[in-house]
Give the backbone structure.
Amino acid sequence: MAPHDRTPPSDASGAPDASELVDFAVDLTSQEVLRRAQVMAALGPDWDPMEVLLGEEAAYDLLYSGLDAGQQRLYDDLVAAGVLPSRGDGRAAA
């Protein structure tokens, strides 16, 4: 099939002629390398992944702190169901 053909050739029934179909693949390797380089450039030289991780953990601790009895019960149910990961001693931070 020539690149300028809009439709693949078909047989008498109108079905595409399988002998004319071509395997189509796109190699995104160069685009992925460029994307990763752009992400790292956007993060900048001061980006500290450990600091970010510790900040996320602190945010989760704050999110689940100060729960009233009903919220704590719901939190415990979600942990037991595997929806939320267990944190610390299994109780939300006070």
Notes: Residues 5 and 20 are 12 Å apart (CA to CA).
